[in-house]
Amino acid sequence: MVDQISADRRSAVMARIKGKNTGPEVRVRKVAHAMGLRFRLNRTDLPGKPDLVFPKFRVALFVHGCFWHQHDGCRRASMPKSKTEYWGPKLRRNVERDALVAPALELLDWRAVIIWECETHDSEGLAEIIRCRVMQDVGS
After folding, report:
1. Potential cystine with 52: which of 14, 24, 39, 95 (Cβ 3.0-4.6 Å)?
2. Would you list the DSSP string of 26-66?
3. SUPFAM superfamilies this protein is in (predicted)?
4. Running DSSP on this structure, what letter comes out for residue 80?
5. Domains of the chain: which residue ranges?
6. Calpha distance 125→36 (Å, rounded)
7. How many CB atoms lie within 10 A of CB 133?
């Protein structure tokens, strides 16, 4: 399928995509804060620069966009039909880089947790995900 908008317009749309304070990340922060959890943002001293860090639980949380990090089985993770020579390697590099983060964090005695963009739309479900993934193995 050919792109429905011009290359210049597509470039402008893609340039507006943020790396910090994205909608899914803000939703995770609001739910975690409402649960009484305290965290730090974007710790650059930890591998992968986690979006949220919960020092009490030694958890580094990443809020991954389904497209950018190719969420397996998610409809949002489809490969673009145009410029595949660009998108294929770019998205593969993201996935390969992600695979290196959890082991690097484990070496530092941290646990990596991923919340996918598609999991952030339901606040109650998101709270349960945070409870299970962030607070696991803790008497909370």
Report:
1. 39
2. HHHHHHHHHTT---EE--TTSTT--SEEETTTTEEEEEE-T
3. Restriction endonuclease-like
4. P
5. 16-37+48-133
6. 16
7. 16
Task: At 118, list the tokens.
Answer: 């598609």
User: What three-state secondary structure class fits 81?
Assistant: coil
- Backbone dihedral angles phi then psi of residue 74, each to the nearest 5 degrees: -90, 140
Given the structure tokens 């210049």, which residue do they identify?
8
Q: Structure pTM?
A: 0.83
The CATH code of domain 16-37+48-133 reads 3.40.960.10
Quick one: which H or E segment has residue 107? Answer: helix 84-107
> What is the identity of the amino acid at 71?
H
Which one-letter DSSP state was computed for residue 13?
A: H
H/E stretch holding 115 reads: strand 111-116
Q: Residue 140: helix, strand or coil by DSSP?
A: coil
The tens digit of pLDDT for each residue in 56-91 reads 999 999 999 999 999 999 998 888 888 889 999 999
